[in-house]
Amino acid sequence: MSILLQTSIGNLVIDLYTKDSPVECTNFIKLCKLKYYTFAPFYYVKRDLLGEFGDPLYPLSKQGRSVWSVVDADMPAQFKLHRNGKRPIHKGDVSFRVTSQVSNEQFGTSIVSITLGDLDPRKGTLPGVVFGKVVEGLDILDKLNKAIVDGEFRPLQDIRIHRTYVLDDPFEDISGMSGDVPPTPEPSEEQISTIRLDDVEQVKLEDEAHEMTQEEIRERKQREALSKALTLEIIGDLPSAEAKPMENVLFVCKLNRLTRDEDLETIFARFGAITSCEVIRDKSTGESLQYAFIEYEDKRSCEAAYFKMDGALIDDRRIHVDFSQSVSKLASVWQKQRVLRR
Q1: What does the pLDDT look like over 65-82, one tens digit per residue?
Q2: Contact of 44 with 153, CB cutoff 8 Å
Q3: Buried b vs exposed e over 45-76: b needs ≥16 C-beta within 10 Å?
Q4: 321: β partners
């Protein structure tokens, strides 16, 4: 019985121990079926130990919810975990984190841990009940394991679950579920507010006391590109990382929803002549999608704006600007739409 998690760094296929852990597997399968984990971040990654996800609103919410609570708000957020003799000591072990314990009874929610390395059981084991194992995507776990993290072990660049696919479900749907698989939802405004962008270059990493090797530089650039690509998927377009960028067009995101075209043009015009400035809006509602394109007459003006305005505060929002390869496909769509409107 398998679940496929499509993440921002690759796919993970998890085989479930449905006979040994039927309650835990039911909880995980049904949460995946309801698309509960969509856009949930890996918010705790400790190298060679574990990676953790499970609350789609982290850090606004940190406890997660059982599927019974998701379906019926009157039900407890936690459910009782059942020990099965399996310990999370092998790379790829998937377990529910113990969120609380009363006497000898352990409880969990939707919080899942994936073991990132083979552990020595003589040194103790991680708290949790194993209910599955990653059988495809161990190389993706290696990528997760190498993520650069902050002081709280959260990746500096977002690693998120994009979609969940239930490949096999041996359990009856719980009471309150419709039986139909819902479509993958768009990220909510709350989720969008928790996005982390490519801030690695601005952060002094504590473990970087040595000069970076070419391999480390290459891996860092790959992580930056993945972060930018994720940001654009949030907005609603999957960019191409191989297309040639437009050298005189600036991409601006994380805008305040109230920021207007003319506001941006006034602010960015000090770097040079602007031929076009457009905040992109939803076709149906007309609401700002919180990103924009600014086209300058020449490349030099665009570069000046890029170096001066990344991280600037506009309408109480700290913006991000870019003109890298990771936005080129979205820029091409915008450019084609401009031509059609003329």
Answers
A1: 999 999 999 999 999 999
A2: yes
A3: beeebbbbbbbbbbeeeeebbbbbbbbeeebe
A4: 252
**pLDDT value of residue 317:** 80
Tokens of 34: 């309801």
Q: Highest-confidence range of 66-75, 296-305, 317-326, by mean pLDDT?
A: 66-75
Domains and CATH numbers, the chain: 2-196 (2.40.100.10), 235-341 (3.30.70.330)
Q: How many CB atoms sit inside 10 A of residue 212's CB?
A: 12
Beta carbons within 10 angstroms of residue 172's beta carbon: 10
Q: pTM of this prediction?
A: 0.60
User: How many residues can be counted in the chain?
Assistant: 342
Instruction: State how far the Cα of 20 lies from the Cα of 23, in Å rounded to an integer.
Output: 9
The torsion of the CA quartet 302, 307, 312, 314, rounded to 10 degrees, works out to: 0
213 contact partners, CB below 8 Å, separation of at least 6: none
Closest CA to 321 of 268, 276, 242, 266: 268
What is the C-alpha separation between 195 and 149, in angstroms, rounded? Answer: 15
Which tokens sit at 320? 């991000």
- pLDDT at 133 (0 to 100): 96
For residue 175, the tally of other CB atoms under 10 A from its CB is 8
